[in-house]
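Propose amino acids for all 313 sites.
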């Protein structure tokens, strides 16, 4: 489908609502009225699309009647679902990988009923206790996948291929989210993994904000985008300030709206469109009024899309 700047799917991620109600009830078990109220808040900010990440409500774990309630809640809010993201549920998690893969299959089966054409998977795992205590979780080291010559990576390729075959049967694409220290932790590593999967309905989610925010040396940002944008079919998009003190080697990063950070998204969105990108954007932000910033980012993306020469859109 060819989108205009006004119709391009630009979704809000539901991460800012967490996965429990104020009294600690898992949102998975909350009444549909709770889901509806949160979806209405998103719609009230002008969004027409939402990404119901499993870090909010795991639709792959809802019973059939509860899933029907969920579908009704989304429809009643007036929102559409262009994508579904999984978060910190690696299909090769040492303890729960097989279960997460089964849940992934359920999400793929249910995606068409929600109107979603793409499901996002990654290999990041649960926050460590140190990450959970940190002011920003990325200030502490998290899970590290083994080297690319490991049997675990072979299993990861096999399980993504399995999910992709299922997706192809029901008309769903798979996107692979870039995240530090995983099999998708650098552009070169992500492209290598994608080539080993070798499925036409699988692409990359170039969520390079996950790398930009790290307090460590990273590859040149425009170079990273140049490598991955030709393989991109979906995009979690966010921006950060990033600085290093040359006297001490100390890094400083902080989340900011897209227009204000170190990544020049006007440049890279235009490059992506020129490379053939037609997938959904999902606006993410951490801290402050995350939804409010996401709404600002949505309008910035639309403005950038309007600037794309017609012949490349």
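Proposal:
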């Amino acid at each position: 489908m060819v989108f205009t700047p006004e119709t391009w799917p630009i979704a809000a991620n539901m991460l800012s609502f967490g996965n429990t109600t104020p009294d600690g009830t898992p949102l998975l078990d909350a009444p549909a009225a709770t889901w509806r109220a949160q979806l209405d808040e998103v719609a009230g900010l002008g969004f027409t699309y939402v990404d119901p990440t499993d870090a909010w409500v795991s639709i792959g774990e809802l019973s059939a009647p509860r899933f029907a309630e969920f579908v009704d809640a989304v429809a009643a809010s007036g929102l559409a679902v262009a994508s579904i993201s999984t978060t910190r549920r690696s299909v090769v998690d040492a303890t729960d990988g097989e279960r997460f893969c089964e849940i992934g299959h359920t999400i793929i089966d249910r995606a068409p009923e929600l109107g979603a054409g793409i499901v996002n998977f990654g290999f990041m795992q649960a926050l460590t206790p140190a990450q959970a205590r940190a002011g920003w979780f990325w200030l502490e080291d998290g899970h590290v996948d083994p080297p690319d010559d490991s049997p675990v990576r072979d299993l990861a390729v096999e399980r993504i291929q399995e999910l992709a075959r299922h997706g192809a049967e029901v008309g769903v694409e798979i996107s692979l989210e870039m995240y530090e220290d995983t099999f998708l932790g650098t552009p070169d590593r992500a492209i290598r993994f994608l080539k080993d999967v070798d499925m036409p309905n699988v692409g990359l989610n170039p969520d390079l904000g996950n790398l930009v925010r790290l307090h460590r040396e990273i590859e040149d940002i425009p170079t990273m985008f140049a490598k991955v944008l030709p393989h991109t079919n979906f995009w979690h998009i966010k921006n950060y300030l990033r600085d290093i003190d040359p006297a001490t080697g100390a890094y400083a990063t902080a989340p900011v709206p897209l227009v204000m950070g170190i990544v020049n998204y006007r440049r890279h969105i235009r490059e992506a469109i020129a490379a053939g990108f037609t997938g959904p954007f999902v606006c993410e932000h951490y801290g402050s009024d995350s939804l409010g910033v996401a709404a600002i980012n949505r309008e910035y993306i639309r403005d950038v899309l309007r600037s794309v020469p017609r012949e490349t859109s």
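Residues 60 and 106 are 5 Å apart (CA to CA). The mean pLDDT is 97.
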